């Protein structure tokens, strides 16, 4: 028995994912990002569309781009 999970993935390039909290200009410090830091985050939206139970094996899957 196999299960096929259907998920919709939306990439939203203009969405604001993370923003620094507002601070007074005297409290802000300028540090260089360390290893693994400072990488811009991408906005993704995941939506579960459903689960399909199949008997046997899934031989081929095809994704769609909209």
Descriptive key words:
66 residues, two-stranded antiparallel ribbon, 0% helix
Describe the structure.
By secondary structure, this protein is mostly beta strands. It has a domain at 1-15 and 40-56. It has no helices and 2 strands. The protein has strands spanning 2-11, 44-54. Strands 1-2 form a two-stranded antiparallel ribbon. The two termini are 30 Å apart. The model has no long low-confidence stretch (mean pLDDT 77).
State the major sheet.
Answer: 2 strands, antiparallel
DSSP strand count: 2
- What oligomeric state do these chains adopt? single chain
In one word, what is the shape? elongated
Main-sheet strand order equals 1-2
Summarize the amount of helix as a percent range: under 10%
Distance between the termini: 30 Å
Output the number of helix runs.
0
- If you average the pLDDT, what whole number results? 77
H/E element string?
A: EE
**Which parts are unreliable, with pLDDT below 50 for 5 consecutive residues or more?**
none
Q: What's the alpha carbon Rg, rounded to whole Å?
A: 21 Å
């Amino acid at each position: 028995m196999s299960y096929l999970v259907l998920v919709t993935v939306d990439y939203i390039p203009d969405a604001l994912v993370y923003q620094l909290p507002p601070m007074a200009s005297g409290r802000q410090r300028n540090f260089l990002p360390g290893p693994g830091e400072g990488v811009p985050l991408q906005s993704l939206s995941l939506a579960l569309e459903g689960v399909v139970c199949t008997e046997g094996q899934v031989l081929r899957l095809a994704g769609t781009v909209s």
